[in-house]
Design brief:
The complex is a heterooctamer, with four copies of chain A (269 residues) and four copies of chain B (66 residues). Chain A has 269 residues and is of the alpha/beta class. Chain A has eight helices and ten strands. Chain A is 34% helix and 15% strand. Chain A is globular. Helices cover 11% and strands 36% of the residues of chain B. The chains are: A alpha/beta (269), B mainly beta (66).
Chain lengths: 269, 66, 269, 269, 269, 66, 66, 66
């Protein structure tokens, strides 16, 4: 076992299934940080994503409540995945989740319980509490968590619909910092999807996540923060597909030495 | 009577309903979720839910996020 | 300068130009090591490549000369890039090049002068000699070389039409072993294409090469040696495009800390 | 800030303080897996360690209880650090800790609550519970944990006397898998020692841990599993010192380009 | 073969032999870039080095020729290794070498033929020419070269007394950029010493070079450029020794999974 | 009466003390810790602690570990 | 007379041309390149190039390679 | 007559020796190497080597370097 999964290992080809729905795209995009709504919509379209994350925030009363994200007609075609970004306790996350369901009339949820403001790393204790509550409430919980496989197993056992380990701090663009932890997590969590959430900075980062055997990738800053978000969205779309295909194709084993690709006999003399 | 909306104190007539408050604030019914004293009030109950002195309301919507 | 090039730096979008011809695909594939000709043809097609490398070998007299690679009708659509694989001296490489031109009636050449049998690393001294001779002979010389930018500059000054540094030993599948050397080489060689030749093992390796700003990638074992070569060829096609797009799009800068992708104000209380 | 700490940042030069005692050596060694007690004692001596870990296990009644580790007179000079290795619940770890104190008459404890048999990764939830109980019981708790800084802060707030994040799975010899997580953890945990526990495979791994700013390194397999444990123990002793000195000395900043170390003027012409 | 050499492979324990002289220290230090001669002397002493490099430069006629480096009495105890730093051609390097011999009355030489001003990478063609000339002239030639093993074999065959591949650009402090190339080079070059020259930025970089099986390390900026050069010199001394000991001790093999260091039976129940 | 020592069933006379049991098992008093029904029994109490039918004892010591 | 073809010694009539040799070897003219004593002989010259005693010929083609 | 020392033009009497030049420049004999017209002049020959019109001299020493 070269530690890089294999077609046998994680349901090759099968589309990404979340809450009983199958999605053709394995890329989930955030809707934050875009210069304009138009740029966001164009980027989402270029990415081929079918699911987009949104945040829940207070209405600015002075604004007369205009400018809800969902005013963008372009969003109607996507599955909306509300998050609990910015919540620092299970209780706050649960309240935000209930409001999100009231807003979206769907029970899909990206659950975040943050434990540290500088790294935005999850508070996995609070995350487990909130997951237990929200699963009872009937939510399809997709928890943003660390790459700790023990926590991942507990989240799964608590009824999470997928595991979403971070690759690196949110918005850092550092790529997968610990491939070995992710590899070990993937070998353990085989019954629900594993989606790398956070840290992807460029196309190869997304490809690497998929080559390790992840079922999907969720990103926001990697696209929205690029000089040309639309073009980067296109790159990410292809990178996720390329990484998945490579994972299923089964890569050539690594060797320390060379092995000729042209015949070594029948040379002229 | 006074209530708190998204943290700000507001005056409103006694027995104002949530629906009435939203109208007063010129907020569209749709795409807004309302929490009253930490309990979500479903849209279907907006018109028959009367506010009481000191109620704390959260009015939220979706915004761009990751 | 984050060392990762930028659209400004290496002619964004422009197709790959070799010997005055522009190619839409930036992926060059080898034709060695396939189980069957049919599998090879299917893989080449899936890869979207327009240029394929071939080797020059003695005819097996007993076979009555049947089974030349070019009997595969499927190859007619590709630009044929003969190599001098297996040559351990400039003189041997020059003889092989002249025979290749007589066979192919084209002057495009992947020049290899090997210096070590276990690693198949190039003999850059012999490579420079052979390049000087063959450029005079009118060849369009694409030299397989190390990631040494001083040698790369000499090859360019000797008239090479591109620089083809290795990413790792031929057939090793180890990926780009020294990104910093490649980065430095790319900053120096801006007037002719730089194509990573050898070492690519999976899709992300190809994407990384392109993200660094390479103009193309040449591979054989990475595809032919995969469990499913056709699927890997498809993966490589997308990975090269994804990497190029990402390079041109301009990736988000790396940060040590997190930066939230959802607004940090207007939280409920 | 190059993310690699600095003399200013973590009490340079100060010795390693645990439970109010200052130790001159920053290396803690395990006593498991040695071929013979003599080899173990020689290795401990060569390492210069002052603290050694031990496990608590049932007496083999058939053996008449002979062969307790502490029969080795050579161990008398070291501070004994009992562990709760092999415990899969907080309750089991607490029982083992109480037995260890009865055995050792000291309250120093390496607390392990394991969450997964294949990786031996900690169960950080159980670890937090056990830490809270044992701190109340008066133990000096040194928890073996993940590199999750949120958990590290909770352990500190629960009264842990140090944080001992893993570098890689116990006995894997893979070295520090996630330097960035460790860097972030070190920037947050400044008031108690941070000791890398597990994963160190060779001298440079230990040096890297110390250069990142760790206060100490704990290892067992890296020494006991070497072909020549005594020599490796000597190597580890020097590597820990070298890494600490380098951390305090303040390394030269990294540059993408060269900078000459000999004068560039006054050349002959 | 874990690619990390083994005691069997490269004369364990034997001291570093150059030009028929055996040196106890495997660390060679440069004398450039120190704030003061006193700081340099203290650093050299702290490093335990026995060989120091110096450059050859024109006398500043206005200064009345005062301030030759060798006025420092502290240098008298070291073997002086003149370099040809700053030479961009074989001819210039040969002239500088002859002047150096006249100055130093010794034939030991660190040969540099630079090919690029921004990276200070060697011009390996010119380096080979100059090596051939100077070996005939009776010099003990230690060439600063790339990590290209084919060039290394040619240098050895031309009579070089050691091979000194760069780890990264001079003064960059990036550490060993291509361990695989270095590993392959070490497996090929067994009859003369291999000394990593350039790129070492901190203690672990030096340890890594030695663990790979190098016979020595040469550095200047890594020490002179540290905030506290004397302390870094001490760190480098220990790191080189630690790395060499670890190489000879034979590290534990890497594993993807954990292996317990405490017994897994006889747990309490 | 019967007790369980490190998971094995053992017979011993009524009112046997822990100290007596250790002697019977030829175990040195030192370097052994004793847990009785999940409670540690300090060494100072070994000689006046009598076992009861069905007691579960854990006798442990230090071994090499990491 | 004898010549060497791809390293093997062969007999052939005096003044045999390269074209004749290829026919004798049942090799298709196309897709084959011929080197005679380390000089390439272009296809156009095959029929008027006569071999001489001891000539060393290399007959090559393209094969799969990377 | 004029010579070039480390790239600078200098006047000196005819038949000046290298040793004399070094004295004139107030340079210590030791720790200096001299190249005349691209040929090293060993220290032992400094006193009997006379300079000629237009000679190019390089006077060098060791400095700190890596």
């Amino acid at each position: 076992m070269n530690g890089e999964g294999s077609p046998a290992s994680r349901a090759p080809g099968r589309s990404l299934e979340l809450g009983g729905v199958a999605y053709g795209s394995r890329l989930i995009l955030g809707t934050g940080k875009y210069a304009t709504p138009a740029l966001m919509e164009e980027s989402l379209e270029a990415s081929g994503t079918e699911i987009v994350t949104v945040a829940v925030r207070r209405i600015d009363l002075s604004s007369g409540g205009r400018g809800s994200l969902l005013d963008s007609p372009g969003l109607s075609r996507y599955t909306i995945l509300p998050n609990t970004a910015g919540c620092y306790s299970a209780e706050e996350a649960v309240r935000t989740a209930l409001l999100a369901r009231e807003l979206g009339l769907s029970s899909l949820l990206k659950l975040e319980v943050i434990g540290d403001p500088r790294t935005l790393f999850p508070d996995v204790e609070g995350l487990l509490q909130a997951t237990r509550v929200l699963v009872k409430e009937g939510f399809t919980v997709l928890p943003y968590t660390s790459d700790d496989l023990v926590i991942a197993k507990k989240l799964r056992d608590a009824g999470a619909a997928a595991i979403m380990p971070l690759g690196a701090p949110i918005g850092s663009g550092l790529g997968i910092q610990n491939r070995n932890h992710l590899r070990l997590l993937l070998q353990e969590i085989r019954d629900i999807p594993v989606i790398v959430d956070a840290g992807v900075g460029t196309a190869s980062d997304a490809a690497i996540a998929m080559e390790l055997g992840c079922d999907g990738v969720l990103m926001n800053t990697g696209v929205a923060g690029a000089k040309n978000p639309v073009q980067m969205a296109r790159a990410m779309r292809m990178a996720v597909q390329a990484g998945r295909l490579a994972f299923e194709a089964g890569r050539v084993p690594r060797k320390l030495y060379a092995s000729a690709s042209s015949p070594e006999e029948m040379m002229i003399e | 009577m006074k209530v708190f909306v998204n943290g700000e104190q507001r005056q409103c007539p006694d027995r104002t309903t949530i629906a009435a408050l939203l109208r007063a604030l010129e907020l569209p019914e749709g795409r807004i979720a309302v929490e009253r004293n930490r309990e979500v009030v479903p849209r279907s109950r907006h018109s028959d839910t009367e506010l009481a002195e000191g109620d704390r309301l959260e009015l939220v919507r979706f915004v761009g996020g990751g």
